[in-house]
Amino acid sequence: MPLRTREFAALLGAGLLGILAATSLGREEARAQFLDNLFPKETAPATKEVPPSREVAQYSFAPIVRKAAPAVVNVYVQRRVQTFSSPFAADPFFRQFFGDAFGQPSERIQSSLGSGVIVSPDGIVVTNTHVIRGRGETEIRVALADKREFDAKVLTQDDKTDIAILKIENGDHRFPTLELEDSDTLEVGDMVLAIGNPFGVGQTVTSGIVSALARSEIGNSDAQVFIQTDAAINPGNSGGALIDMSGKLVGINTMIFSQSGGSQGIGFAIPSNLVRLYVQGAAEGRKVERPWLGARLETVTREVAEGLGLDRIAGAVVARVSDSGPAARAGLTAGDVIVGVDGFEAADARAVQYRLTTRGIGSTVKIGVIRKGQPQTLELTLAAAPQPGRDDVRNLAGQHPLDGARVSNILPGVADELGIDDADGVVVVSVRRASTAARLGFQPGDIIVEINQTKVATVADLDGLLGARQRMWLVAVRRGDKVFNLQVPG
Known about the structure:
The chain folds into 4 domains: 34 residues; 219 residues, Beta Barrel (Thrombin, subunit H), CATH 2.40.10; 87 residues, PDZ domain (Pdz3 Domain, Roll); 97 residues, Pdz3 Domain (Roll). It contains 13 helices and 25 strands. Helices cover 21% and strands 34% of the residues. A hairpin with a 2-residue loop joins strand 24 and strand 25. The relative contact order is 0.08. The protein is of the alpha+beta class. Strands 19, 20, 21, 22, 23, 24 and 25 form a 7-stranded antiparallel beta sheet that branches. It has a 6-stranded antiparallel barrel with strand order 1-2-3-6-5-4. Strands 7-8-9-12-11-10 form a 6-stranded antiparallel beta barrel. Helix 1 packs antiparallel against helix 2.
């Protein structure tokens, strides 16, 4: 640092006096001492030492990988699919309803590759639904890290959560497994490893940290909440393991954000607490049911926050409440803002649904809400949605466009399950593969509004309208916020 004029003069005077007074020092020694006082030398750096042991010098993930890698498998899928060629295939409006499945049929073999994780010694494997999903007859092979291969069958799959559970078809073996960790114990910054088979090159391990938790603004389903990591995840890693430093499974890798198709440090995994529900359900031979809230939730936006006088743009606002649902019994009312579930922050509507799903039907949870600017805590008992009656659901068959569709009256539980609003019409619940409805592109969640310009209010109305033979069918379908008019020859 430069010396101020007064300080420099003082040092110079002291130095000169020292030189004049130095009777026992030579001229050169006195000059050197003066310069040392004026410009002191920097302190010598600390001595560098060799690490005292090899253990201190060598840190490695090898023990963790050695423990976890045998339970991570490659999943190979082959399916025979029928394809159809059509002169209208390039027409966007045509493809909206017909997709690729229209025209002259031909058969080909379609292959896909992903990863999976063995979670029980008898061969229960977790992977992604999008790894095994597809039309046609499907063959699934599971290849272990030790090069053994086995056939596998699908026990359950869920498009909403992208979770699929497989069973290795060989009862004579005991397989290596990964233990599921409580994903709620994760914190941002924790070290994690991703294990899978990217690009089909073979089992690969990458390292990184937990970049974020409860990411819910991505994906297509209101049931999806993700762990974000910068551990490299690439095509082929889907269904693979995300493990912590104890070698336990904290997530199933499922997707990436990428402009090039390769890893750019933003990958996502399904939390192990949600995976656990599906593993338990598959082991017990039952379908996992999401709790029925009996309320319509919407994510708090800037406009909603300003309108309700909230100091944070976070939470899920209750848009409507069914009269006899769990939300009504808990005391929730329209306008309440849910900000937490059992002490965990709920940033949006998806986060609320995720927390309720992982708690499970029959559980009682504490809901933190903001009502008219004041915080409150309510107790909510989770229940299954009421089952539709015999007259509420119908499988359609016949010479009409909806052959192969299962439809339902729009009941509160059905609306919650499919993520639609209560509305007039009849909703498509499922579509049988290779049926007329499937070839025409009908999807679960589509609402049949009109048939031949006659409004549809119930499944009985729809079934009656479809019973008459027509030269031309005119079907009005609401999908999301848009209504499409489909014209099909009779």
